[in-house]
Queue: 2 jobs
Job 1
Amino acid sequence: MRCCLPLPCLFTCLLLLDAVAGATGAEQQQRRLHHQVQHGKCSYTFILPQEVGEEGACGGAGGEGVGVDSPSGGATGGGATGKQQVSNALQRDSPPSPDAPHSHSQSSPTWQESKLQALESIMDNNTQWLHKLESYIQESVCVELQEQQKKTLHTHTAAMLDISTNLLSHSTEQTRKLMDVETQVLNHTSRVEVQLLEVSVSTSRLEKLLLLQANELARLNERNRLLEQRLSVMEAGHAEELRAAHQEKKHLQTLLGMSGLPHDEPMLSRDCAEIYKSGVTQSGVYTIRLPNTTHTLKVWCDMDTMGGGWTVLQKRHNGSVDFHRTWREYKQGFGSVLGEHWLGNAALHRISSSQDQSLLVLLRDADGHEAHALYQHLHIGDEDKNYSLHWRGFSGTAGKTSSLTRSGTMFSTRDRDHDLCSCRCAQMATGGWWFEACGPSNLNGVYYGGVSNGGGSYGGGVSKVAYNSIKWYYWKGPSLRATMTTMMLRPADF
Ligand SMILES: [Ca+2]
């Protein structure tokens, strides 16, 4: 049974089935079902077929009949006669009126009519009620449908809103991430561009520098080539001069041989450096010929110290020689080249005048400490200039400051006073030296050696280092007790 079918249609079907039921009889009666509905004071019994009704509620055979119960609630169907129920599927279930047999016997048509009228009235009521029921059901159904639709719509709208919100959030998040990535990419690109620009600038600078250096190199090469050309010319000229000098030398030697005068050994060297360069590298006594003279001289050549080739000017190591000498003695030299000695100021002037010389001073004190002072360039004036001292290029370990008297200082001895002191330094300090006033050095002072303070010839037994002792002030101050001193010369370009 379907609620959505229009009830008048159902009622019509019931009537039609009623006619059919009349033909089938009691068999149909057994297949019917009873369904009772309470409405107000009335109860309605729906008599439904058991098998035919399954074909459809509206199109086929629907309900079979409707019974109307009386307010007293008496049941119909089972208790009434079968014929009456079949022919009147929808009837009022009321007891027969007490006067029914009487009136039936007298005016049967009138009772039937009244019965029919009553039935019609009931039918009308039922029809109206069914209309109301239909309206009510329709309204209910419509309201329910509308509510269902609204609810469904709301549900769908909420779901769509949720989905839209989620999509919007997701899109916003994705957009934000994309913007972040874009920002990072832009920053990275900017950095890379800046680096490229810096690299470009640096490369440009390096290229300019390279170009400048290449130009400078080309200029230097050109200059070098010119210098080489000039050098070649000079070498050729020098070789020619040398050849001419040799010829002149031969000529002079021939003249000397013819005159019968003695002449120097042509093989003598002018200093120890020349001997060293000739291949002799052992320290010892050698004979040299002073430059620009015929004068020969025995010297001690130091071939071991700092590359060798040194001509010893002064040597002290045991105090065996007295250094408190006269001007003439210092000019010519004294002592033994095998031991303590002074080579001589005349020789010193000759050697230092022939070519640029270096002076090396070696010192050792009583404790065995050694030091040196090197003067890259040294020159000693001639006797007219009192063998004045000139030097430059000091270095070494014997003090940070040169103890040798400043350039220009003249030589003084006990009999020649050329110092800048009103006193006589050579007398006070003893020995011959380049005294100033009297200056921080005197390697020709009294040799006290390792004897403590004044044990030497001029010490006088004093308990402190005597003023007249060997002095090299800026190495050990006034307390120096020298046990060895050496002064040597060697060409500066050795
Ligand atoms: Ca003086």
Job 2
Amino acid sequence: MLSRRAQKLKTSPTLFLVAKAKELQAQGHDVISLTVGEPDWPTYPCSVEAGITAIKNGITKYTPAQGTIELRKAIIQRTKSDLNQDYTVQEVAVTSGAKFAIFAALQVLCDPDDEVIIHSPYWVSYPTMVELADGIPRIVTCHEKDSFKITAEALEKNINEKTKAFLFCSPSNPTGFVYTKEELQKIATVLLKHPRVHIISDDMYHRLMFDGSVRAPHILDVAPELKSRTIVINGGSKAYSMTGWRIGWAIGPQKIIQALGDYASQSTGAPSSISQAAVLVALQSAENEIKETNITLKNRLAAAMREFKSIPQFKVFEPQGAFYLWVDISSVNGKYYQGQKLESSQDFGKILLEKFFVATVPGEEFGNPGFLRLSFAIETKRMIEAIGRIKSLVDQLTIG
Ligand SMILES: Cc1ncc(COP(=O)(O)O)c(C=O)c1O
């Protein structure tokens, strides 16, 4: 009954965990969720006010499908000060969330069987998005020794005549690792040899950095020559804590952006006029808030890292940006909890949720079994309580 396209949609195993967490909460259990990919702090007051003002002033109608000229200009200014790159309004398309910007970019780039290089661990949606564009996700597994980042050698090995694009994000969801300028330089050197390959740079977390820098290094810093085939993705969701406002954008070569805008105009239509007005103000006046956010996240991270020292069976990889902890829990495989053998990180996640009321996302979701992703966009007290419960489970595991 369903189309082949619909059959490509994989039901996420996390959905089970999320549904289960809700069920347990409804039964009155004190569930701590470390699954969410969103900030726990409110949208900054300047954007909230701008949203309310937009409603009151009747900014409640369709806008151009590619977004208002005012917001596109604000995005251009922001991108100029962040990346030091110049763009025109024709090279910016505002979309209903950054997820749709990536989705639409793949739709307008891929022909059937074109390959898109993605490296694992990857953000959960990338492979399916490529498949829905009739492309083939070419997954390159990355290793701990490379901080779970793709090396220039691995990238080069995986480029062939079918390669249409290389899609990556830095800081990474799920690891929080950031590509250095040197690594980007090597990657750029490979990409410069392959002019057919487009680059989709997902910058969703690039303002959330713990080393005091304003943003993560960028491929265009080291190779501005790639600009004519790079699509930069960003949005309001993470740094501006505006996940529910659903505003993202794609910036890049006019021809691709025009097609992406046309694709959006025939599918979602224009993004919310109210949200666009609110994001515009965020882009212009939330710099101090972002600084404070980074300090808060850094403190939360330090507390979580300290707490995890009490679980030497796990290896926690300290992130440089975003708000996720990537934890190697492979040492629990083959152990038992009350007679039940643990075969995977999913098994661990299930017991952790059902018996200890802590929800996490197993590594299988990101293409890397043996790991867990934990969001630390949560109050430190709750995070510490959650890690304590994880320790209780680990302490109760037996070898037979
Ligand atoms: C890596 C990455 N890219 C893109 C997005 C999409 O963000 P949104 O659609 O909320 O703007 C997310 C959200 O979780 C993400 O983690």
